[in-house]
Amino acid sequence: MRDTSGRQLSGPEASTVTSNRRRLLVAPAEDRRSFRSERRDADLVIVGGGLAGTCAAITAARAGVRVVLVHDRPVLGGNSSSEVRLWVLGATAHMSNNNRWAREGGVVDEILVENTYRNPDGNPLIFDTVLLEKSVAEPNLTLLLNTALTDVEMADGRRIHRVSAFCSQNSTTYDIGGSLFLDSSGDGALAFLAGAAFRMGAESSSEFGEKFAPSDDYGHLLGHSIYFYSKDVGHPVRFTPPAFALSDLTSIPRARNFNTSEDGCRLWWIEWGGRLDTVHETETIKWRLWQVVYGVWNHLKNSGEFPEAENLTLEWVGTIPGKRESRRFEGLYMLRQDDVFDQTQHPDAVAYGGWSIDLHPADGVFSEKPGCNQLHSRGTYQIPYRCLASRDVDNLFLAGRVMSASHVAFGSTRVMGTSAYCAQAVAVAAALCVRDSRRPADLLEPAAMAELQRELLRLGQHIPQHALSDSDDLVRRGHVSASSALALGSLPVDGSAVPLAEDRGQLLPLPAGPVPQFGLRLDVSEPTTLQVELRQGRRPDDFTPDRVLSRRKISLNQGDDQLIKVDFDAHQAEAGYVILCLLANDQVRVRVSDQVVTGLVPLRHRGDQPENPDTGCPGFEFWAPVRRPEGRNLALTLDPPVLLGDPAAVSNGVDRPTSATNAWIAEFDDRRPSLSVRWDEAVRIGRIELAFDTDFDHAMESVLYGQPEDAMPHCVRDFRVRWGEQVLAEVRDHHQSRWTLVLDDVVSTDELTVEVDAMNGAAPAAIFSVRCYSDPDTRILRHEGGARP
């Protein structure tokens, strides 16, 4: 479609163009008028275009589902949008706990990787454009912005038939029908109007045996926050506060925490409203938060205590609050505290969480209590599908903040990375339901659930303790080989050394059997004794190192660049990760390496979580990574070398490190790394999928945080795919986790090769998976004219 100037249009504006030739419209008086009405129909109607709703809409559209996304704001993203400006986080938890390689996969990963590539400085406006671009690119997705749900029409009392919505910007009422509906609206507007059971506030400790359930003194709801940004304009700026600004900050116990160096969502603790109705009194809460923000800025500018504020201006203040909690709707199961801390295994696991159980006092910034109480699980935990399907409305899914969880468990699931991840699972479930004319609850049948989990894994949706078993993948029938495979014998010294002012560690995967001898290079300021330990978790993929396999005390003489060798005389019962721990010693510095390798992470002991029987909180040590560029692997040797990059790993069904690297990794000195699959007889290939390493251990906060790189150094940048001498694809400047080639003509071959020409950094070539399919179109639904994923 083109507009009246001949300009080619795309996206939502294409459907709203009208001629500019009419100069005058004369409309006679009438008794009354109605707004223009448009009818829309879809397979899946999504209400709420926060990050959860957006990721669900894109995922479903790519699966072939016809989607209408109704969102009451001008941009997508909800709390992550430029209107609120909260960073996206999930199980990575700012890389502060023991959740290794925990960044969510699928579409939310694609969005975060793309935002990091385009926007490493974290500009929230750029993040808006990434979400919008991904959404309008999908032909199966109809996006209705600035459009608010107004009514629901039910059928047979247990099914939603149609919904009504109104857009104030174009004075249009929409009548939207669908076979399935998803509420990702935050406040649960759709589920509420449909009559679904919900909860608001905290359960008593006795209902689910939750020891962390809050007291009345603490409060039973989380409040809202509003953030602000400041800017140095290079000359003095005067500030006259509005009359409604809070004039006396003595009512804010944490006023001493305000300073001129923090803004945006680092001020998450400017929170209030947990003792009010966080749905119907949101405007009251917003005004109170505005009073606080402008009062704080007045204090920073005019109290005389902050001379560094002289050239600062107030660049931006949120116009809507970021909501934490309101209604939570009852699904087929309600997640609870024990599911998080016990890392419960669910047969219908479709997602995972890993943020702490993070509860805040209801009085927020006016409370004498700490701004939050965070209790961590020892690792990620599974989230079951049953939490995402309504108990009461047969064709209603729940995602985002409204998913089925107790108030305590919600303290972890509420963060946007986790919410979006669950919503992606809903999107694939919806595609299966539409294809087979099923209700959401029907997918709990074991064969249907196995198919849902398989489809999610194929899309990059990692599910803890699950691997993809895909009989359609031709690579599983082939023989995989490579130009080389990394057997790690050493990580080279780069000349730098870090002090052992705190415990340091190196996360390494080891095979079953005798533990190799380790070599370390140390600078020692005076004679001392260094304690070195080899630790592991409870499972091969558990990164909380509370089991000591062996410990050694090493006597050291004064001197720089000393090579010490450590023999632990230990035996690894089964293959899995261990942590080589160097305990703190002020007389020692350990040499480090600039070498980046898939599946290796340097760690530091950043503190402990004490066990607390009163809250049910488990006790353990936090061994967390240091962000690059400061975070570098220890320069070490292993004798004998350890195979890290077995080519066979590309067909094991796991696309990130878990109990092993799960990747083919080339040797450091391989100048022309390549990976080949050969078949005993020719196979027909119509689709090729590759999974690359974009460092799933890196949190990739969407805003405010500055990221150390735009493209992850572990990721393949330039590569080609060929069969025989024929090049099927040649790719340059790649930076995403996944790449797909859909062939116009199916090829018949007994060999396929991926050749790596360059990486995005100094890492050796690495690939998590190669998958080949005969059918070029793997969508669950195949609407005529729909786009390939």
Automatic annotation (TrEMBL):
Please name one Pfam family that this protein belongs to: FAD_oxidored
- Quick one: where's region Disordered? 1-22
Q: Which GO terms describe its molecular function?
A: 4 iron, 4 sulfur cluster binding; metal ion binding; oxidoreductase activity
User: Which residues, if any, are the signal sequence?
Assistant: none
Classify the source by domain of life: Bacteria
The protein's UniProt keywords, in alphabetical order, are: 4Fe-4S, Iron, Iron-sulfur, Metal-binding, Oxidoreductase
UniProt name for this protein: FAD dependent oxidoreductase
